[in-house]
Each structure stands twice: as C-alpha cells, then as structure tokens.
C-alpha cells in the first residue's frame, strides 16, 4: 500500500461540487467508513450495498477530491483499489453564497456524521478497555451525562457559547503537548444532541 499522509481532522470544502456530494446520504456514509483505507467491496459489505454501486459513488467522490486512492490489494485473482477519505469532518465556506437553509442542512448532517464517528470510536475503545479490565488491569474512567433545556435557537446558541468557553478553560488547564504519547494520556469526548424518545422521535427537554 502506498504511503499517505495522516487523514485530516477537518477539511474546508473548496468547491460547491464537493458540498453537493456530501448531501448524498450514501456518499456521506461512504466517507464515514473510509477513515481507514478500504475497497468498494469492503464498504459495500458494511453498507449492505453491491460493490458496483459503491464503486460508482467512489469514482464521483474521487472526481471532486473527497477521497484518494491509497493503494491496491490482490484478492484471489482480482486487484482491488483501496480508497481513503481526505478528512474526518468537513467545513462549508460562507463564500459559496448558498442559502442559510441549505448551509444549515449540510452543517447538521456534518455534525451528525461526526457524532456517528465518535460513537463508533467510543464503542471500540470501550471494548478494548473492558478486555483490559477482564485481565485485572486498572482502568480509571468516568462518564458525565445530564439533560438540558434548549427550547429555541437563541437558547441553543447561548448554551454553545457558554459550553465552548467552559471547555476551553478546562482543556487549557489539563492539555499538554505530546499528551497522547504519555503514560497519563486520556481522551475526553463532549457531545450535545437532541434526546430521542422511546418512539424514535426527537425532543428538546
């Protein structure tokens, strides 16, 4: 497999065509699954779709620069092309001049995709930590969960400002350069989203 630079955390979209690609739910899911190199067949199995259909969307994503080829792999008598997304999350520039409704729709989708990415990472990390706990290793951890009342857009924006300010203060106090490689490295994940009731709808409580 060819050597590629590390996948970017955030990619600022460069063309409207890239943004339109993200509006397609299948292509958005493909990008989410390509945080690591994979073939059309692998992505198709995870999504329950035919490899030919996934390959069509991969070609479109490659054309607008949202995925790159990361090498090839031989599977029996076939040579599979491996692809990887250029980033984990995407930012829509204001310069595109799109309507607020469309920009909000894309921003919401991007935030929800990031929530899915984080959820999957949490699940995988938790499984590894449970294995360590089963091996009688000490695994210090903590979870903070609460309900919020954010009934309207003004309240939600005010909360986000306060939330970001408080998080920055805490992170500044405990963040250290190179912490990820140290013995005392921990990961903090913070998320805000509407509660989902038992009937499957969402409500702001």
Automatic annotation (TrEMBL):
Cleaved signal peptide residues: none
Keyword annotations of the record: DNA-binding
GO molecular function: DNA binding
Pfam family name, one: HTH_20
InterPro entries: ArsR-like_HTH (IPR011991), WH-like_DNA-bd_sf (IPR036388), WH_DNA-bd_sf (IPR036390)
Annotated protein name in UniProt: Helix-turn-helix domain-containing protein
């Amino acid at each position: 497999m060819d050597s590629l630079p590390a996948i970017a955390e955030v990619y600022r979209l460069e063309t409207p065509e890239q943004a339109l690609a993200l509006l397609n739910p299948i292509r958005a899911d493909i990008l989410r699954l390509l945080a690591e190199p994979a073939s059309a067949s692998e992505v198709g199995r995870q999504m329950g779709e035919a490899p030919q259909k996934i390959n069509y969307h991969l070609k479109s994503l490659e054309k607008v620069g949202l995925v790159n080829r990361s090498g090839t792999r031989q599977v029996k008598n076939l040579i599979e092309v491996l692809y990887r997304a250029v980033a984990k999350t995407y930012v829509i520039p204001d310069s595109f001049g799109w309507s607020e409704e469309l920009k909000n729709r894309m921003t919401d989708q991007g935030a929800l995709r990031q929530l899915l990415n984080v959820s999957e990472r949490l699940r995988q990390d938790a499984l590894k930590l449970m294995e360590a706990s089963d091996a009688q290793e000490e695994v210090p951890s903590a979870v903070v969960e609460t309900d919020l009342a954010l009934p309207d857009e003004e309240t939600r924006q005010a909360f986000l400002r306060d939330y970001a300010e408080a998080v920055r203060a805490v992170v500044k106090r405990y963040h250290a350069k190179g912490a990820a490689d140290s013995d005392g490295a921990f990961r903090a994940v913070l998320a805000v989203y509407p509660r989902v009731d038992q009937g499957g709808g969402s409500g702001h409580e």
